[in-house]
Amino acid sequence: MFTGIVEEKGHIIAVSKQANSLKLTIQATRILSDVKVGDSISVNGVCLTVTSFNQQQFSVDVMPETYRHSSLSRAKAGTEVNLERAMQANGRFGGHFVSGHVDTFGEIKRIWTEANARYLEVQVDPNSIKYLMPKGSVTVDGTSLTVFEVKASAFVISLIPETQQATILGEKQQGDIVNLEYDMLAKYMEHLLRNHKHSEQDNPLTAQTLKENGFMD
């Protein structure tokens, strides 16, 4: 589990690519202070497991499912990535609940500035817009952000100066691809309501059903 508060920007220094999988080696500093093999680290919002490390770098494997549903399939040596260690139970919760299980990716269609804010409009599959709402939360490349506007097939986020400097989002350009994780509470609610609806259709609760099972005379 993560919070979406990026701890540092790392650099991919090596990519070993197979047909539908990857091994990444990433240079970092801060997050390596207490790292262990088996630890979870969010790389651009994707929860990955540390397989090896030293004082300057760590390695992770990207399996086919992650390869197909995240921007890590486009990873190249020299690329900067957002990094966050799994949250600690005794720490402050600065962002929102982030699982590190990326739902999909979107494309930055427009960028503009106003005062000290940098706005990004991200185009997504129209079918996924239902998970977004104004003032709700979304994770973009591992960064917890507030949704400012929702359109038919896009949403708008705003970056404060600290986020521009501390994450790779401050350097993104029009046409870039970003990983997206929607609010897990919205996804759980949809799942529960869908299953409840199907259950009612398969086993409708009627007066006759109650009588047959001894709940009514």
TrEMBL record:
Bias-annotated ranges (Polar residues): 202-211
Domain of life: Bacteria
E.C. numbers: 2.5.1.9
Catalytic activity: 2 6,7-dimethyl-8-(1-D-ribityl)lumazine + H(+) = 5-amino-6-(D-ribitylamino)uracil + riboflavin
UniProt keyword Nucleotide-binding, yes or no: no
Pfam families in the record: Lum_binding
Record GO terms (molecular function): riboflavin synthase activity
Listed pathway(s): Cofactor biosynthesis; riboflavin biosynthesis; riboflavin from 2-hydroxy-3-oxobutyl phosphate and 5-amino-6-(D-ribitylamino)uracil: step 2/2
Top enzyme category: transferase
Biological process according to GO: riboflavin biosynthetic process
Chain intervals for the UniProt region annotation (Disordered): 197-217
Cited function: Catalyzes the dismutation of two molecules of 6,7-dimethyl-8-ribityllumazine, resulting in the formation of riboflavin and 5-amino-6-(D-ribitylamino)uracil.
Protein name per the record: Riboflavin synthase
Lineage: Bacteria, Bacillati, Bacillota, Bacilli, Bacillales
